[in-house]
Predict the 3D structure of the following.
Amino acid sequence: EVSHRTPPCRMMSRTTSTVRVATISGARSARRGGTSRNVRVHAANSSYVRKHILELAPYTPIVPFEILSEQLGRAMEDIVKLDANENPYGPPPEVNEALGNMRFPHIYPDPESRVLRKALAEECGVPIENLLVGCGADELIDLLMRVILDPGDVIINTPPTFGMYAFDCAVNAGVCVDVPRGGAETGFAMDVDGIKAAVKKHKPKLLFLTSPNNPDGSVLREEDLIELLELPVLVVLDEAYIEFSGLENSKIGDVPKRDNLIVLRTFSKRAALAGMRIGYGAFPTGIIEYLWAAKQPYNVSVAAEVAACAALSNPVYLKDVKDKLVAERDNLFNVLNDCPFLTPYPSSANFILCKVDGRDALGVKTALAKEGICVRHYASPASISGCVRVSVGRPDQTERLREALTKI
């Protein structure tokens, strides 16, 4: 999910470059039971903490389901959760069966996740030697930066996009240079010329691209990717939502043929395993060997690997659920478009971004929450300020949303 926080990045444009300073927050202590989200108390022993971590703005995740239930005074079953792009259909039935029959949960997992990587190699058409599995794709993003970035090294970010790129860059003492996408009038298009200029000026090691992009659902043009792959930088293509735009658009099969392309994928969306934390990536030879050297040995749990393998065993279910969500995306778009204060933007993912017209976006989110409907709102960056993002749910959930929008 895109963070509410403002990470420490440099904003790059064709005409100017400015430095954005992170907002210090007490969000971490609040998440762990503290009372303040705005004040961080530096105790005497905080002098041991790395200097850049002392000034790090914590990532702001969505509210956990159980806490959300308490806050809204509603049973979890009565909440329509459309704020985190989760799959509302749940995983294939084989997943629960496999988890219930785990034979050796007391034994450490295979540190190489060989069974899962073999299955992924067959599905993706990528040699097993190029595949690495992580505790969610988030872990692989962080691992990549730990291996690639020295303090002060630069990454290129293309906001609005997934907030973990800038966050992990800050954690690893890197410098994040933003090359903003175009606004809604451009379809949130990538600024290829701006990226080229940023690469020439800042000499980054990593360029992060997302297709379909979160939070707007736009797809990277083939010709733009080809052009960017010619630059002297490692290109990380995040395909977390690729199934909803068509697997034929995936570039994961190109990784073994290129020495600067990395593709990340996840089981959170298509396989409804967000709670299991399981993701994977394809990495070129020459990079992956150092990722293996630096990764935690038991990073993927027995349960997560069992669940992912079980999900892959039923491709018919996975395709059926994907088809349902793509069809419901069209229905959701029409519902949002019929709302007088919302302007939805076309999407190739399992969510739709909407401009809120004539009303406060946070106010709309709050009003929907009172009706048991959860959506995401944005105050920044400027291109999506005053927007809400709505995940695609089941038809009955879309109907609940339509009734709530009419009411508010």
